[in-house]
Design a protein that fits this description.
Number of domains: 5
Helix content: 25-40%
CATH architecture of the largest domain: 4-Layer Sandwich
Radius of gyration: 30 Å
Organism: Smittium mucronatum
Structural class: alpha+beta
Distance between the termini: 44 Å
Shape: globular
Strand order of the largest sheet: 3-4-2-1-14-13
InterPro entries: Endo/exonu/phosph_ase_sf
CATH superfamily of the largest domain: Endonuclease/exonuclease/phosphatase
Protein name: Endonuclease/exonuclease/phosphatase domain-containing protein
Number of strands: 16
Number of helices: 25
CATH class of the largest domain: Alpha Beta
Length: 649
């Protein structure tokens, strides 16, 4: 990716459906690489977190009842840009991101915030770029008519001088509270974006075009461990380090005494021995303190839990290698920082590149073990990752960037509790699924409930009871694996030995591998589990209840081969997707008059009046172009009411 970065900022005054679409289009159309959204008011926060563009957002720390929420700042990024992020931090008013070795901070400072609160909200990192709505106007010297408030003007002027920033003038003359500050070495322009579409906010979308050439690059170390990048300037970290170093004060005093006792008459050997011993003591104490306070990534520790080292590279030549790599790297992160997340160990290296580097360390023979990889009559041990069919830097990147802490959290404990045996416990899950799929397909809440089985089938998503049963089968399959370490077997044993409470029919109450549905399907699962689960999913999402159930018209050829979602969700424009979904729901033409019989239009009029027989036959995934042409033709013959939003029907 080029270091030419387009950073957008948009104060949306409440992240409504229309404003969310407006924001997403700026990314999908290539107008921005990064987009900060402020004053989201935490509208539909849980839904937005599942977007492919979502990176992070602030937390609502001041929840208000019965009225709309306040503040809220969110960061979106294109999937390509996500791969270059090395670190992300946030608080109530700011989001700070590290990219290409630069720290970029997006802010929203409401008028009520004091200067001291603003100062506390900006972390101590040196920021190459600060941008956002700071609710400040800098007067005629900056080309603005307003000049207030004075304390903020002074604060940002001082901050600009301290950080060697340039205050970038926007390309508009009107007063705007949105400002951008950049390192003086960065070439940047601050542009007002005038969309051809209606902007649903009273603020303008602002875009900072910048060239983030890296000023200095920090090379990767090749040690067996590396220290975590906790901010050493944080007061709490400093106090911890001082406290740890104080434990070594006697050792330091001893070293100084020994050095003081040296004189010119001592032999060179004695001097060298004393200096080497002092160096070793200092290195040991600093390493010990850094390890304890900052944490470390221990490659050799990860090696000790992996397979025999001679077959390590073979482990990468599996389809599951990428997810295993992501899991191991995240585990190392947890050991180092106590947070089960993914971030870079170095500010100028992206997290995904650092993960790949980590595995170069992990699967490379240690210096003392190199001879173990030389076998008489054979070539030396091959450590070239790119020779592996499935393991590559790009596949690792995809695995990490697609990872989300918010996806399907309920799925982890579900099989253990055997929730699908108790229908009352899964009602909240069903309600949440209906709400999510309603939003995805753009239909009204009423239709979302009325057609929830059909919508679930269109999206290729198993209904909750079926999904839980599928998870149960996968749980049994993993329990039944003949591996050296099986966490599930240990878990069942622990639950039994500790008398931990579980539901009466929970899997942990009886031998999991005897679960009837798993035992019945064990042979096809072992033969090819991927095909088995795909067939099972297709069967579950194709279930019909009545003879007129429109789910029966969604056949296998209509679906995406991988996700099993209907072709209607993959058309080239939003309007075509909307009309295709309406047809599938039998609501096409709602609110219009049939051009032939002049009665209220119903979908049955397409065959009866327009003489187009079996329109569903055009819904073929591998021939989307024809479906689009047929839809356009239908829309000409019987124009739908485009003024009626499907959400409001």
């Amino acid at each position: 990716m080029s270091t030419l970065l387009k950073i957008g900022y948009y104060n949306c005054n409440g992240l409504s459906y229309a404003k969310w679409n407006y924001a997403v289009k700026t990314l999908s159309n290539g107008l921005c690489d990064l987009l900060f959204l402020s004053e989201t008011w935490f509208v539909d926060q849980e839904i937005h977190q599942n977007s492919q563009y979502y990176v992070i957002s602030s937390i609502n720390e001041r929840v208000r009842s019965s009225v709309r929420q306040k503040n809220g700042i969110m960061l979106l990024a294109t999937p390509e840009c996500k791969q270059h992020i090395s670190n992300v931090e946030f608080n109530e008013f700011t989001i700070s991101i590290s990219l290409f070795g630069h720290n970029i901070i997006g802010v929203y400072f409401p008028p009520s915030l004091s200067v001291s609160e603003i100062s506390n909200s900006i972390n101590d990192l040196h920021h190459s770029i600060l941008l956002g709505d700071i609710n400040t106007f800098f007067g005629s010297s900056f080309g603005q008519t307003k000049n207030r408030p004075n304390d903020r003007i002074n604060f940002f002027d001082n901050l600009k001088a301290k950080n060697y920033w340039a205050h970038i003038k926007p390309d508009i003359t009107k007063d705007t509270p949105d400002h951008a500050f950049c390192d003086i070495r960065i070439k940047a322009t601050w542009k007002f974006y005038d969309s051809t579409e209606e902007n649903p906010s009273d603020h303008s979308l602002m875009i900072l075009n910048s060239d983030l050439k890296t000023f200095q690059s920090k090379p990767l170390e090749s040690d067996s461990f590396r220290f975590s990048l906790k901010d050493i300037d944080e007061p709490i970290i400093q106090s911890s380090i001082i406290s740890e170093y104080s434990k070594y004060s006697a050792l330091f005093n001893y070293i100084i005494d020994q050095m003081d006792k040296l004189n010119q008459s001592d032999s060179r050997y004695k001097m060298f021995e004393c200096i080497n011993r002092a160096y070793w003591y200092l290195k040991y104490s600093m390493t010990s303190v850094s390890d304890h306070v900052l944490g470390k990534y221990n490659v050799n520790l990860a090696k000790s839990h992996s397979q025999s080292r001679k077959s390590n590279l073979k482990a990468l030549d599996l389809k599951s290698s990428n997810s295993n790599a992501s899991r191991i790297f995240k585990k190392s992160m947890q050991i180092a920082s106590g947070k089960y997340t993914i971030k870079s160990r170095f500010a100028d290296i992206s997290a995904v590149d650092d993960a790949y580097s980590y595995f170069e360390d992990l699967f490379m023979p240690s210096f003392g073990e190199a001879d173990a990889y030389v076998i008489s009559g054979h070539n030396n041990f091959d450590t070239n990752f790119e020779n592996c069919e499935y393991f590559s830097s790009q596949s690792i990147k995809n695995e990490i960037t697609e990872y989300s802490d918010t996806n399907s959290i309920w799925e982890y404990p579900a099989p253990i509790l055997n929730l699908f045996k108790k229908t009352d416990t899964i009602k909240p899950l069903i309600t949440a699924q209906i709400a999510g799929l309603t939003w995805v397909t753009g239909v009204s809440k009423f239709h979302g409930k009325q057609y929830h089985r059909l919508i679930s089938s269109l999206c290729g998503i198993e209904p909750i009871p079926d999904r839980l049963e599928t998870l149960g089968i996968k749980f049994c399959q993993n329990y039944d694996l003949n591996t050296g370490v099986n966490v599930l077997k240990d878990l069942v044993s622990l639950v039994g030995n500790r008398n931990i409470f579980t539901f009466p029919k929970a899997y942990t109450r009886f031998m999991i591998h005897t679960l009837p549905i798993y035992h019945t399907n064990k042979e096809p699962i072992l033969d090819n589990s991927k095909i088995y689960y795909l067939k099972r999913k297709l069967k579950n999402i194709s279930k019909t209840v009545t003879s007129s159930d429109r789910i029966k018209l969604i056949n296998k050829n209509s679906r995406n081969p991988s996700t099993l979602a209907d072709v209607s969700l993959f058309l080239s424009s939003r309007s075509l997707v909307t009309q295709a979904i309406r047809w599938r729901m039998s609501t096409y033409g709602f609110g219009t008059i049939c051009p032939v019989c002049k009665e209220n239009f119903k979908y049955t009029h397409v065959e009866k009046c327009l003489k187009i027989h079996n329109f569903d036959r055009f819904f073929i995934f591998r021939n989307k172009k024809r479906l689009e042409n047929e839809l356009l033709n239908l829309m000409k013959l019987a124009p739908p009411n485009l003024d009626i939003d499907l959400r409001n029907q």
